[in-house]
Design a protein that fits this description.
The chain is about 25% helix and about 20% strand. By secondary structure, it is an alpha/beta fold. The protein has 2 domains: about 15-70 and about 230-260, Medium-chain alcohol dehydrogenases, catalytic domain (Quinone Oxidoreductase, Chain A, domain 1), CATH 3.90.180.10; about 90-205, Rossmann fold (3-Layer(aba) Sandwich). The strands form 3 sheets. The protein has a 6-stranded parallel β-sheet. Strands 1-2-3 form a 3-stranded antiparallel β-sheet. Strand 4, helix 3 (about 105-115) and strand 5 form a beta-alpha-beta unit. Helix 2 (about 75-85) crosses helix 3 (about 105-115). The protein is globular. The two termini are about 20 Å apart. The relative contact order is 0.14.
Length: about 260
């Protein structure tokens, strides 16, 4: 994550660590507390020895997860929660198809949706099917063998984490009043969804996540659960940060890439 188009640019938007100092009016946190959360990337990046943050951007780290795991969950976890709770307004008993169900945001979406009582169908490669089942998918489809658009089942929600489906095509597998979630929309898609949703019972909705203290606290509660999956793919040292970004950009990996600056 980078801070904008103008230089200097700051790298890294989420982190975990131990509080060294607090302001005089801060009562929620104290020196020595283990925390995780976001950093305001307009004022600096997370890949440095020390960061300064406001209390609304952090929460306490659960004791049962590592600093590396905690550093990896804020962005994808809140995006998943935003899509499910705020955008789709999920309800127990609904069904959701997650296309690309073992990606980093999908790892959270799968587990949260299952805990909230949804039927979860995932699509991924054959190599990732066992992991998808561990995440809570009720059924997993090998996208190389079956096109999800050919499914006879209709869903309340289709979330295209793989960014390969078109809303016009997805309509055929949506129930009436169903929702297509788009996590990486283009500007024309955003504009088109605003007008199209006025006349169609099936909605094309854009997922726009942002730092949210309530969701951060709920992420911590999820992470406290002993069986909740927070996979880390690889940890790089601070001196190898460039290799870390090169590795992550290759794609096709399961779990987050983390930089340890200690």
């Amino acid at each position: 994550m980078m801070s904008g188009k103008k230089f200097p640019q700051f790298v890294g938007g989420e982190f975990s660590g131990v509080i060294e100092q607090v302001g005089k009016n801060i009562v929620e946190f104290k020196p020595g507390d283990e925390v995780f959360g976001f950093i305001n990337t307009k004022k600096g990046g997370a890949i440095q020895d020390n960061v300064v943050v406001t209390p609304n951007l952090i929460t306490h780290k659960p004791k049962n997860i590592s600093f590396e795991q905690a550093a990896s969950i804020s962005v994808v976890g809140i995006a998943a929660m935003t899509g499910l709770y705020k955008t789709a307004k999920i309800k127990r008993g609904q069904s959701i198809l997650i296309n690309g169900c073992t990606g980093n945001m999908a790892i959270w979406a799968n587990q949260i949706a299952k805990q909230e009582g949804l039927r979860v169908v995932g699509a991924c490669s054959a190599e990732s099917q066992a992991f998808a089942l561990q995440l809570g998918c009720d059924e997993v489809i090998d996208y190389r063998k079956q096109n999800v658009l050919s499914l006879s089942e209709k869903f309340d929600i289709v979330w295209d984490m793989a960014n390969v489906l078109r809303f016009g095509d997805v309509k055929r597998i949506l129930k009436n009043n169903g929702i297509f979630l788009n996590p990486t929309p283009t500007l024309p898609q955003i504009i088109g969804s605003l007008f199209g949703n006025l006349v169609s019972s099936k909605k094309h909705k854009v997922v726009l996540g942002a730092p949210n203290k309530e969701y951060l606290n709920r992420l911590a509660d999820f992470a406290k659960q002993p069986n909740f999956q927070i996979p880390i793919n690889k940890i790089f040292s601070f001196s190898d940060y460039k290799q870390a970004y090169d590795y992550a950009e290759k794609g096709g990996i399961v779990g987050k890439v983390v930089i340890n600056v200690s």
